[in-house]
Amino acid sequence: MGNCGSRECVDQPVPLMSAKRGVVDRYRDQLFDLRPDSAVREVCLVCSVDRVVDGDTLVVEYAVSNPDMDISVAVRELAYEVTRSLEGGRRRESPVRGGAASPSAVAAKRLATYSQRKLFHLGYRVCRVDDGRATYQLRRVMCVRLRSMDAPEKHDAFGAESKQVLQALLPRGTSIQLWITDFDVYGRVVADVIRLHDRLHINRAMLISGWAWHYAAYDGRAEVAQLERLARSARLGIWAHGDENTPPWQSRRSPR
């Protein structure tokens, strides 16, 4: 699909919607260049997509210059293996064995391990900056729940397809903006997701392409409900074979 973080993708059709582009083209004013509504509390700094969890959840990251926490050792002083561990988003400890190093080296390693653990559990990671030097950058990682919509659960029909559509819309590294409205009971940020290079409203794109339900219990806006109705009438996505699909909020209440 190419690098959809570049301007080259501006005129490309929304992935997996091209078969019935008339629906998308007709309602471009509801998908592109929108402004935050009154429920938006904060327009977040630019983030980049780390990974897609499912059809309505992302993990994103952004650079941090002065994290609001007490870091016992500066990032530039972290041991190389600790930095590489954080860079991969994992916490990996390497205990120092007795007699393997001087007392000062043991103390430094323990301090670095403590700092690594603290960074990891508070949602930070270290990323290598591609500037031709051995430079690292502290980045914050957070989970984002897309507002207004509810996609099929992973184990349900169309769960995998819904995730694939979102991955196609937001490949890893895509620059996005978050319009944050709330935090859910799991601590995830609830937000509208805007793809920066073309200002596509991702939440609405998922709805109008038929890969998610309108989550009316948490968003009663008529214009958002209309996007689901358009997808149903055009038999797009999960509606291709009719209206018999079980909504994810009902699926979550059912015993496995």
Automatic annotation (TrEMBL):
Residues 49-241 form the TNase-like domain. GO terms for cellular component: cytoplasm. One of its GO terms (molecular function) is hydrolase activity. Pfam families: SNase (PF00565). It comes from the Eukaryota. Keywords: Endonuclease, Hydrolase, Nuclease. The keyword S-adenosyl-L-methionine does not apply. PROSITE patterns: TNASE_3. SUPFAM superfamilies: Staphylococcal nuclease. PANTHER family: EBNA2 BINDING PROTEIN P100, SERINE_THREONINE-PROTEIN KINASE 31. This is TNase-like domain-containing protein. It comes from Cyanidium caldarium.
